[in-house]
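Morning - uridine-5'-diphosphate inputs below, output right after.
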Amino acid sequence: MILITGGAGYIGSHCTLDFIRNGYECAVFDNLSEGHKEALQTENFYNGDLSNIENIRNAFKKYPIKGVIHFAASCYVGVSVTDPQEYYYNNVVNTLNLLKVMLENNVKNIVFSSSCATYGNPVYTPIDESHPQAPINPYGKTKLMIENVLQDYDRAYGLKYMALRYFNAAGADSKANIGESHSPETHLIPLVLQTALGKRKSIKIFGNDYETPDGTCIRDYIHVNDLSKAHRLAFESLQNNAKSNFYNLGTGKGNSVKEIIETSEKITGKSINKKFEERREGDPPILVASNLKAKNELNWEPDFTEISDIIETAWQWEKNRRY
Ligand code: UDP
């Protein structure tokens, strides 16, 4: 059985679904602080907190865990700047607790949810895995710290890991009626679609004077099901005795904020009110992945390569959301 921490969250719930669809048995460990009961894809649910090591030990007693996919973490870049303590405890200390219990139980396979935020300001684009890692906010630093911890634990204890550095997760599964639901929501695509639905008055565009073709920031939006598939392939390669490794996950294509809004207008058939605002602190102009390493070594291929197809699935969710 595979333990999925944060399995009630946005990416974690989609990943659980992907593993289950491919015949795996999963258990979810989540404290429901950001996740949603309605998003759970399995009845094997342990409502616990990674800050409580006995909770983790009990989950390992309850389920015959053979590997871990670790999503549970705090994920707001902005809050990590104003409240770094929460981020260092939740993302670093609590992950150390999880690793400790894994080692106690001789469970030595983990797929870790890392981030392109570990790269900091890009010095070239597209970003490949050899790009220097110099995070510019506490969130990115916590993810890099754990990548370093994993490297040391591999050397010392033989713990095998795959660190997956995501670019911008987007979209929703079109059949399972699960999707993105953060509180507060800060991500571009849900905010744009909620504006189209009239739930918000306007979308703020953070900066229109970047050195990009239309002046707005460019990001690499990857469908959450493609991310999930990559976690499964990464896990399977660990099962097949692959060495520990790290991979970028993105489509390799970038879209600007303006393009996201224009595409959303076409898909929703609504005009979307926009307001230009100051740049948001810590936003690099362009973040686009080179995904060749994941393609070549994990045999991974994204199914969604058009931003319109990704936004379409997010729109279906946004119109019918259950939570
Ligand atoms: N963005 C924006 N308005 C918003 C939210 C985001 O212009 O209300 C921009 C943001 O500056 C970034 C892009 O949209 O360039 C994606 O931001 P998001 O918060 O979705 O993801 P991030 O890149 O921070 O992980």
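Note: Residues 84-104 form the longest helix (21 residues).

O.
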